[in-house]
Q: What sequence folds into this?
């Protein structure tokens, strides 16, 4: 989202001279959206619109209303907005206003910078002590350890922000004040951040039960100590297409057997495979969940994401896996942290 999106808004009462000055200051993102006193979208204005108006006999002191495009492209906030975004992105539109049900502009999507605008809220689990990374975590909570020039959690947050995520909750426990002071309320990043304090550890998803003010119907829960460049839009579209209750990101884990593996039946050899490689899919610590499913998490109780998965399996819920082929690394041990420092030099975000 555009952090200072109102720089793209201009009152209907303005003249074209004022608009030209504003367009000049916007540089590569030179488009204005004309609004009334209630920020209701009236039209759009570009350098080209001004040029055409002047060539048609309009003057520089005329009101912007005479120059504008009266049917601008826009996005309705909500789940269906993603289809509109993809269609506009495919047609090379870059700066698109987002309007609410009253047609008021509530934000602006810049597809020159951002990749999408996903209708999800995000919970980042950041309360762990990072015991396996001692002594690095004796004074610094693991999410604030730096990989390259950013903290681990900043890599996660920035990736999600690039997909248009605005609303975040961060669960904190160990050295909570350090994390809260690092982010504040999110204003400086153009996002909203709230915190969930765990007085005692509540597992990998238990703290989510304390959040009652989600804005969207889909909640992404992620560990704060993973490093990934996954495509969250593809993840969301897969979730929607399969009408899932919960989707678990899975990553391939290969096991090489250094010997021939023999298949037998009552000691009779049926077949054998020379030094086979088996691929298993492991839990990546990233989940997308329908908000309605979260009521199955008990209040203020230790509860892991795998416990929620067990509940859905027993209730025949639609629990699916999303096999990911993008980069992923769980920074749990010192050698993982060292690997991350090397990998970050070549990861394409």
A:
């Amino acid at each position: 989202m555009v952090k200072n999106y109102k720089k793209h808004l201009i009152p209907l009462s303005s003249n074209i001279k004022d608009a030209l000055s504003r367009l000049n200051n916007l540089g590569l993102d030179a488009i204005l959206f004309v609004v009334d006193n209630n920020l209701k979208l009236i039209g759009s204005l570009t350098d080209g619109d001004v040029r055409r108006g002047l060539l048609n006999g309009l003057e520089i002191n005329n009101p912007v209303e005479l120059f504008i495009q009266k049917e601008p492209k826009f996005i309705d906030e909500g789940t269906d907005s993603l289809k509109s975004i993809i269609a506009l992105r495919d047609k090379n539109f870059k700066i698109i206003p987002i309007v609410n049900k009253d047609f008021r502009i509530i934000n602006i999507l810049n597809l020159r910078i951002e990749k999408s605008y996903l209708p999800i809220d995000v919970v980042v689990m950041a309360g762990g002590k990072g015991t396996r990374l001692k002594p690095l975590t004796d004074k610094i909570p693991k999410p604030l350890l730096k990989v390259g020039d950013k903290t681990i959690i900043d890599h996660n947050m920035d990736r999600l922000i690039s997909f248009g995520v605005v609303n975040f909750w961060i669960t904190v426990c160990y050295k909570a004040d350090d994390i809260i002071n690092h982010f504040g309320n999110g204003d400086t990043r153009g996002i909203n951040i709230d915190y969930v304090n765990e007085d005692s550890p509540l597992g990998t998803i238990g703290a989510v039960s304390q959040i009652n003010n989600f804005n969207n119907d889909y909640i992404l829960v992620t560990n704060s100590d993973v490093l990934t460049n996954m495509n969250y839009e593809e993840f969301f579209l897969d979730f929607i297409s399969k009408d899932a209750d919960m989707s678990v990101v899975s990553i391939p884990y290969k096991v090489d057997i250094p010997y021939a593996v023999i298949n037998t039946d009552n000691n009779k050899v049926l077949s054998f495979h020379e030094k086979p490689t088996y691929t298993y899919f492991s839990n990546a610590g990233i989940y997308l969940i329908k908000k309605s499913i979260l009521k199955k998490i008990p209040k203020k109780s230790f509860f892991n994401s795998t416990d929620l998965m067990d509940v859905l399996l027993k209730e025949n819920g639609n629990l699916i896996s999303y096999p990911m082929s993008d980069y992923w690394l769980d920074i749990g041990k010192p050698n993982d942290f060292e690997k991350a420092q090397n990998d970050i030099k070549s990861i394409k975000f």
